[in-house]
From TrEMBL:
Residues 265-287 have a biased composition (Low complexity). It is a peripheral membrane protein. Residues 261-300 are annotated as: Disordered. Its main location: mitochondrion. This is Tafazzin family protein. One of its GO terms (molecular function) is 1-acylglycerophosphocholine O-acyltransferase activity. It is found in: Mitochondrion inner membrane; Mitochondrion outer membrane. Keywords: Acyltransferase, Lipid metabolism, Membrane, Mitochondrion, Mitochondrion inner membrane, Mitochondrion outer membrane, Transferase.
Length: 300
């Protein structure tokens, strides 16, 4: 029998002053540690960094949902090390993240640490209607930031995995509650160089990392069409999820193009061809058709 996670989500809903204080410290320490790892001890290039900054500093009350590929256990929190230090130190502004209960919440110590770090235990295989998903819907309704890996697991082989429909539920129910979230895709390469998926599981240094941030996905036209067609909840979740999957795969092609320009061998990694919807669609630019790479990012 695994560790009982039943206490975690009720605690996250009603944290108390001491919990909030401990959580703020945990989020700040982990965030700043991640920044040191990816920006000082490794070399990171960020394309369209401004789109992520704008999303994180969006107007009050606007929910944010970020989605990305999942290649390493260091993807989160590592991804957010590119944010400003003052943002990383703000427990209230930082993301909530879904984390596998059987990996991150295996004992009391781990459960407490990850819960304080704003990670929500999700039970893989339990479907879209489970406490973790309910909690994330509530967070979005409050205008907060939720991050999800729609592949549902660390994609070690880097295959094209059909996205889990939970991401579609988060968007649909957030919209039903009054506000569709900003959905920002992020494609990254190289985090499995920093923390490989093979033993020994330890952080590596002096590796090349790339983040390609997309513009918010325009989902409102799709949501209105689904509503006009009286689509069922299942049809709605599937349609939203497929649209997000297509957009993230387009961003992947953009990222690989930029990596080729940078001369990085990751651009030629062997991966299966994209699904037809993503393969035949025009490649989405990283930022309005322009290669936005700051000079200061080249050798960070």
């Amino acid at each position: 029998m695994g560790y009982d996670i039943g206490w975690i989500i009720p605690r996250l809903r009603n944290p108390g002053r001491l919990w909030n204080c401990a959580s703020s410290i945990t989020v700040a320490v982990v965030g700043l540690f991640s920044k040191i790892i990816i920006e000082f001890l490794n070399k990171t290039t960020v394309y369209n960094r401004e789109a992520l900054a704008r999303a994180v500093h969006r107007p009050h009350g606007v929910p944010l949902l970020t989605v990305s590929n999942h290649h390493s256990c260091f993807d989160d929190p590592g991804l957010w090390g590119v944010l400003e230090a003052r943002t990383l130190a703000s427990g209230a502004r930082m993301r909530w993240a879904l984390a596998a209960h059987d990996i991150c919440f295996t004992n009391a110590l781990h459960a407490c640490f990850f819960a304080l770090g704003k990670c929500v235990p999700v039970v893989r295989g339990a479907g879209v209607y489970q406490p973790a998903m309910d909690f994330c819907v509530e967070r979005l309704a409050l205008g907060e930031w939720v991050h999800i890996f729609p592949e549902g697991r660390v994609n070690v082989e880097k295959d094209h995995i059909r996205f889990k429909w939970g991401v579609g539920r988060l968007v649909a129910e957030s919209w039903a509650r009054g506000s569709a979230p900003l959905v920002v895709p992020v494609w990254h390469e190289g985090f499995d160089r920093v923390l490989p998926n093979v033993e020994p599981y330890r952080l590596r240094l002096r590796k090349r990392l790339y983040l390609c941030v997309g513009e918010p996905i325009p989902l409102l036209p799709l949501l209105h069409r689904l509503k006009s067609a009286n689509a069922s909840e299942e049809e709605t979740r599937r349609a939203i999820t497929e649209r997000i999957q297509d957009e993230l795969y387009r961003l992947r092609e953009c990222a690989r193009t930029l990596l080729k320009r940078a001369g990085d061998p990751m651009a030629t990694d062997t991966t299966p061809p994209a699904p037809p919807a993503a393969r035949h669609a025009p490649a989405a630019p990283c930022a309005n058709g322009i290669d936005h790479r700051h000079e200061k990012d080249k050798d960070v």
